[in-house]
C-alpha cells in the first residue's frame, strides 16, 4: 500500500525548513512532499484550497498530513467536514489550536497585526473542537526557548512560542510533549519517531532506540 505524507510549515517560514523531518519520514518508508504557501500575504484559505487539491492529485492510497505550528491549523481546516479526500492521519507539531497568546500580544501593538497578515484570525482565535473523521495527533514542545516569551503571556509549560495548553484541542486522538523548542520540533529525531508511530497506529508510543 502506497502511503504519502504532505508536510506544511508555519507562519514566516518556508518549505525548506521541513527538509530534516522529510528525510526521516522517507527513511521510514513514506513518499514525502512539502507544501509551500504564503502564510502572511495569502493566509490559510488559499493554503487550504491548495492542500485539498494536492491531496486529491496524489497517486497514493493513503495521504497523511504533518503540519508545524500554523501548518497544523491548515491541515485540520483542510480536512474538516470535506468528503472525497484520501484517507490518512494528521500530526500537528506545536500547533496553536486553541489560539495563540503570542499572536494576540503581537496583534495588540502597532503594526503587529500587519506582521500576522491574513493568518491573524486563525492564530488569534483558534479552532473549534475537532469532529472530523481523520485521527489527529498533537506533539507539543516544553523547552521554553523562543522570542515569543517577550511578546505574549505564555502559560507554562511552553516551547517559547506556543504553550502546551494552546495545543490541547477537544476531539483529537492523542497528545504528547517532548523536550524541544518550537523550531526544534522540526529537527528532533524523537519527534520524527513519534510522528511515524502515530501515522502507523493512530497513537503515540514511547520512542525505542
Automatic annotation (TrEMBL):
PANTHER family per UniProt: SLL1969 PROTEIN
GO function term, MF aspect, one: hydrolase activity
Pfam families hit by this protein: Abhydrolase_6 (PF12697)
Sequence ranges assigned to domain AB hydrolase-1 in this UniProt record: 5-131
Keywords: Hydrolase
Transmembrane region(s): none
Keyword RNA-binding assigned: no
SUPFAM superfamilies: alpha/beta-Hydrolases
Name of the protein this chain belongs to: Alpha/beta hydrolase
Domain of life from the UniProt record: Bacteria
InterPro entries assigned to the protein according to its UniProt record, in alphabetical order: AB_hydrolase_1, AB_hydrolase_fold
Amino acid at each position: 500500500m502506497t502511503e504519502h505524507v504532505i508536510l506544511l510549515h508555519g507562519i514566516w517560514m518556508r518549505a525548506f525548513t521541513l527538509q530534516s523531518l522529510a528525510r526521516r519520514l522517507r527513511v521510514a518508508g513514506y513518499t514525502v512532499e512539502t507544501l509551500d504557501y504564503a502564510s502572511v500575504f495569502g493566509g490559510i484559505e488559499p493554503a487550504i484550497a491548495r492542500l485539498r487539491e494536492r491531496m486529491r492529485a496524489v497517486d497514493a492510497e493513503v495521504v497523511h498530513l504533518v503540519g508545524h505550528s500554523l501548518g497544523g491549523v491548515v491541515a485540520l481546516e483542510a480536512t474538516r467536514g470535506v468528503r472525497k479526500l484520501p484517507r490518512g492521519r494528521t500530526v500537528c507539531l506545536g500547533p496553536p489550536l486553541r489560539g495563540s497568546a503570542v499572536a494576540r500580544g503581537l496583534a495588540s501593538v502597532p503594526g503587529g497585526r500587519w506582521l500576522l497578515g491574513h493568518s491573524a484570525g486563525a492564530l488569534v482565535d483558534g479552532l473549534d473542537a475537532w469532529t472530523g473523521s481523520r485521527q489527529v495527533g498533537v506533539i507539543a514542545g516544553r523547552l521554553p526557548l523562543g522570542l515569543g516569551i517577550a511578546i505574549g503571556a505564555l502559560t507554562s509549560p511552553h516551547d517559547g512560542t506556543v504553550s502546551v495548553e494552546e495545543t490541547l484541542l477537544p476531539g483529537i486522538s492523542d497528545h504528547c510533549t517532548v523536550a524541544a523548542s518550537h523550531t526544534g520540533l522540526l529537527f528532533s529525531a524523537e519527534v520524527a519517531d513519534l510522528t511515524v508511530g502515530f501515522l502507523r497506529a493512530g497513537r503515540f508510543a514511547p520512542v525505542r532506540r
